[in-house]
Every structure is written in structure tokens, then in C-alpha cells.
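hey m, so remember when u said the C-alpha cells were messed up on ur end? i reran from scratch. heres the input so u can diff it against urs
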Amino acid sequence: MRVSASFHQQASSSQTKLNRFLVCGLGSLGQQCVVALKEFGVSVIAIEEILPRHWEIPNLPNLLEELIVGDCRQESVLEQAKIHYCRAVLLVTSSDRVNIETAFAARLLNPQTRLVVRSGKENLNELLSDRLGNYVSFEPTQLPITAFALAALETETLGFFNLEGQELRVVKRQIKVGDKFYGCLTHQLNSSIRRVISHKPYLSRLPESVHQWEPDTAIQGGDTLIYVEVAPQSVDDTEKSTLTTKKKRKRFWRRIAQRIVWKNLQPRLRKFWQLSYQYQTRRVAFICGITVLFLLLCGTGLFGWYYPDITVRDAFYATAVLLLGGYGDLFGELPQTAPMPGWLQLFSLGLTLAGTAFVGVLYALLTETLLTARFQFYRRRPSVPQHNHIVVVGLGRVGLGVAAQLQEFKQPIVGITNTQLDPRILPELPVIADDLANALKKANLPTARSVVVATDDEMVNLEVGLMAHTLNPLGTLIIRTFEEGLSKKLAQLLPDAQVLCAYALAAEAFAGAAFGENIDSLFRLNNQTILVTEYAIDAEDTLHDLLLAEVAYGYGVVPIVYQKANGISEFMPPDDTRLEVGDRMVVLATSQGLRRIEQGMDTMMPKCWQVEVKQVLTPDAIFEGSNAIAHISGCDLSTARALMHNLPGTLPVPLYKHQAQRLVRDLSQAEAIARLVPIVCTSCQDIIRLGKVEDSSC
């Protein structure tokens, strides 16, 4: 079984102990965790303080080996649940305080059991993980955020997560004629940055699991590809920006020059004047500023003309002093070479009076602007998009998380809430704070691309979801629910909507973590939840000494990261990599795939193919072919050489189909002729015909 080495060193070898799990709290999440754990075929015990009148999941008590009514924080209650024989304890009550108190009590009673805790206190959880050991925590409302955001995008990206400092994404791609993948063989797409998960030929059924694709099939128009790849890095963007810096500068100055040309400036001024009707303060400031500037130029010209002995600068400053109210102090500063005429004195007085009026208005407007900015603190949020945008209804923790991810994807978005949102939170997010019915009208819902209904009230989500579907029946609708029963009924009522039960998604992560695995992320693929799961290989592990091909095709998972014990990581590792003690591996897996790994080799898919080598075309093919056979099949090099020296012959080691096809291709490159040979699949009770897979296990 897939259990950490420390667990095997400290725990009893009792099968009862290994297969016994305790769930504390039978709310919506707790009930979903029980269902998820039972899919692994283990015994589940539960503690609930007050039993509900109606179970959200019918017949839930029948899934439990024992149901204890009591306070899970009490040591006596935990002892009644036989915590000493529990492999893991899932603390999933609705109270963080209760969960953490129970974690302390559970650790005192059983120092080896794994603690999986529902808690949103990140800093405290890190401290507790270091202190208690074998402790992992999740916030169930945060786990499905990426699933909600990607569902709203309705683009090629199905999943997005970060591993080893690299961003990876799962892509669903509809192939068109002229596409870069068009005409390629499916296996040719696999590389150090990409791994094929699924290939659906045009008009065929969607595969039910990963690896149900033919490596030697040419990709045609209309086919659907699903693959995981390392997202393009910012290095290329940096190089491009460095090369285009000069061009950008030239464009900037060219735009400035174009704007100051009168024929381009005139319509801009007209537009500004029209907009000023909506902002009277701006219009008054504009008029006052133009008037003061005009008086300043007139005064400078008159004083320069009447007093030719002074410089233009002195004339400018003299006019500015008059405009600022310095009529009584100015004339003693000017050279009196001739008596000042009355009209000039009157003009100077007029400058002072006009300056007092207009400059005073500018001072007042400036003061008002500063005070307004002082009390508002933050700038106004952007306006609501008009079309092809995403509407997020409900800006709680989930809604804000979805909005933040969508902003990272550079999507036009508007948020709807019935309370005011702090301006410091997502300041670039357009927000409508109003009654939900009115807010939907203001959000331009009929022209929206997607609607995500993610409030914390399930009935509100139902109501808003139906309203949104009425206003925009063609848009993508994503509804957040909490109960499995309502989710199924709503999915039947709105078959085109994506109804995501938050606790059902989170429960799969909790259940996977209970078996000692680290769950890094999750996303939805073909109506299944895919968990990004990390494994550490130890001596007692069923993964130890397996080839990645056996892990991938035997357990139905997709290895995407392999890290050697020395710390060197490799993305999209080759199938012939052998797992050793101390290695680390990250896979994409459904709960079914995790269950197979947990239950061990007895649940692996059968190997239904062999490779027959007919002849070699060159003497070197014997050496090269032997190495290829040993690496890909995992057999001893002596066995491979014995086969290559006694041709024709069949490799006695059975293989998975993808393995066998790769071996045939490599032998062909080594100038050896080989072919696939089907064998009787005892699991399918059928003969597997060459070139056609009749069962998913083959």
C-alpha cells in the first residue's frame, strides 16, 4: 500500500488499523468525505455532536462502521472511536476552533495518525504542521476556486497550477485544418514540456479515462486533444520587450506629435468640452485657467511694449504679481522712465481684480479636489464592461478568489454584491453594489459571456442562476452549490449549466490527503475531478521500483513531475524512468486512480501486449535493440540480448499497449523489424485485436 515509511515504522501491521479512518463532523463536507473514503474500500467511523433530522446523502449511516454521538474534542469520545487504530483523522466540522482543539487531542492520543484539518488560518496551520507533524489543512471554499474560474472562461484551458516554480496548464484543443498539430501522430506531441492526456477523433465518443488514445493515429481536423504542458515563460516576453523598446519610444513620441497638430487637437478639445457638461467643476476650472493665461499674456505684452527697457521675464513676473493681488507693491519695482498713463494703471487694477476672482476660484477648486481625494483615499473603480464579459455574483471569499484569477487571465469582469466592497480589495474590479435583481440589469447580463453564481447562500445561487439563464440563455452559467441532492436536481433542470458542488470537489482532496498524499490543486476534466497529487517514494511503497509507464498505464494517472532523491526535477518524465526510494513524483489522477495506487498491484490494469522481434537489418541493431528493450520494458539486459540473438522471438515480458508501441518504434529506428502481439486479457475475457482497443483497461 502507498503509506509513508515513518507510518510503517511506527504503526502496527494490523490491516484493521491501516484501513480505519475517523471523520469528525458530519455536515455537508463531512458527509461528502465519508462517501469519498468509502470509494477506497476502507472502514469509516464518524463523530457528530448532534445528529441531523435528515441526511443530505441518503443512507449515510449505512456507510459507516460506527457512528458516535458526542463532542469530538473530548478524549473519551476519541477513545470510544478507537483513535489508536485509525490511520487518519479528518476534522471537518464548521468551526476552525473545534477542529484545531480536536487535532491537539487526537495527536496526544495517537502520535502517528495523519491529521487532515478543515481550517482557513494559513499562518496557524503552518505552525501546527511543524509542531504536530503529519498534519495537513485545507480551506474547502478555496479549493474549487480555480475550477470555477476556468469553467467561466470557456476557453481551451481546463486547469492551471504551479509546480516547482513553473506554471502548468491543462489544455483542451479543437484541431482545425492548418493547426500546428494537424497531421502529426499523437505520440509525436509528447515532449519535455507536453504530455497527451486524451485524444478524441472527430464524431467519436469522449474517452472515459486517460491514456485511451492511439499513439500512432494521425490527428485530423475536428479531433479534440487534451494535454498538459508547461506554460510559456516570461523569458520570451522579456526578450521581445527588450527588442521593441526603441520602437515603442518612437511610437510614443509620434503619437504626442500627432496630438498637438491642430486638426487632431480640435476634435479632442470638442470632445473634452462636451464631456465637461457632465462635470461642471471641470468646466469652470477650464474657463478660469484659460482666462488667467490670456490675461497673463496680454499683461506681459503691454508692459514689454510700454517699458522697452525691461526684459520679457520682468514683464511676465510683473503681470503675475498683479494677478496674484500685488497691485500696491508692484509699481515701485518698475523703472519710471515716463509717467504711467491712466489706461495702463486702470488695466493693472483690472488685472489685480480679475486675478483675485479667477485665481481665487482655481484655489477653491484645487482645495476641494485635495479634500475630496483626502477623504476618498482610493480612485474610482473601472466602469462595467459592455459585452463579452464575465459576471461574478457574490464577492465572498470564493467570489473574490474567482474574480482575482479571472483578472490574472486578463478577462473583462464585473462583480455583483449586495454590500459595499472595501476599495482596497481588487481596486481594478468593476463592482455593482445593489439588490441582486437590479444589479443583474446594470451588469449588462444579456451581452455577458459567462455568469458565475458563487454566493454563500445556496437558495440565492439557485434564484440568481435561474434569473441569469432567463436573461442570457446562450451564455455559460456556473452555479455554486453545497448539497449533492440539489446539485443533481439543478443539473437536470439546467442541463447546459455547470453545477459545481463545492464540498463534493473539496471532499476528494480531503480523502486523497488522508492517505498521506499532498494534494496541490484540483480541476475538472470530462465531468471528473482531477487531483494534482504528490507522492514521496519509500521502501514500503507499492510505487517503489516501478517504471513510470507501469504507474501511468497501470493505475490510470499522468506523471508530470519527477524529482530524484538528489533534488533534480524533470517535467514530463519519460516512461522508462524507474522510481527509487527518496524520489518524488507529481501526477494528475482521479480519485479512482488514487484508489488503485492505494490498494496496490492487485488493482493495476493488466498488461495485454507482447512484442515479437522478427529480424535485424544490421549487426548494430542487436546492440541498439537490446538496450531499447531493456529500457522500455524494464527487463534485464541479459534477457533482451538473449532475445535479440535468437530471432525471430517474442519478448516474454508483457507490456501495456503504449509501452509496446513505443518499443516497436524504437526497434524500427534501430533497424530491427518488430510487431505487436495481443495476448488474452484475463480481466476483459476477450482477445485484444491489433490496432483496436476494446476495453479501457487495455
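this time it looks ok to me. The longest helix spans residues 342-376. if urs says something different then somethings off w ur setup not the seq
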